[in-house]
# Entry
Amino acid sequence: MPVSLQKGQKVSLTKGNPGLTNVVVGLGWDVNQFDTGGSFDLDAAAFCLGDSGRVTKSEDFVCFGNLKHPSGSVNHMGDNLTGEGDGDDEQIKINLSTVPGEITKIAFSATIYEAEERRQNFGMVTNAFIRIYNEANGEELLR
# Structure
C-alpha cells in the first residue's frame, strides 16, 4: 500500500526501497467542470536540488518548458493541457542511478497554468493526484 502524503511532506524513496532505480511521477486530474473560461491545465515539475536546497542552474528545473535534465536522468514526458483521459495526464521519469552526485534531492510540484488569469484554484480541480511509482513493477510508492 502506498504512503499517503500531505501537502509539503518530505519522504525518502530510496531508504525503504533498496535497489530502486527507475521511478515515474504521475500527475492526473479530470476535465474542468466549472465555467472558468478554459480547461484546467495542471503542470508537473521537478526541481533537482543541491546541498543548499536550491537548483544550481536553470537546467535543474525540469518542466513542460525544459523537458530533459542535461544528465538525462530526469525527463518530463510532455504537457497535457486538459486532463482528458484516464490515469496519469503528465509524467516525469527519473533514473535514480544516473542522477549526478551534486543533486542531493529532487522535489516535485503541481501548479495550475495561468491560474489567476483563468480564475482557477485547486479547490475547483476534480480528482487531482500526484503519485510516484516503481517503473519496473508498477508498484505505487507514494500518493
Observations:
- The mean pLDDT is 88.
- Strands lie at 22-28, 42-49, 61-62, 74-76, 90-95, 105-112, 129-134, 140-142.
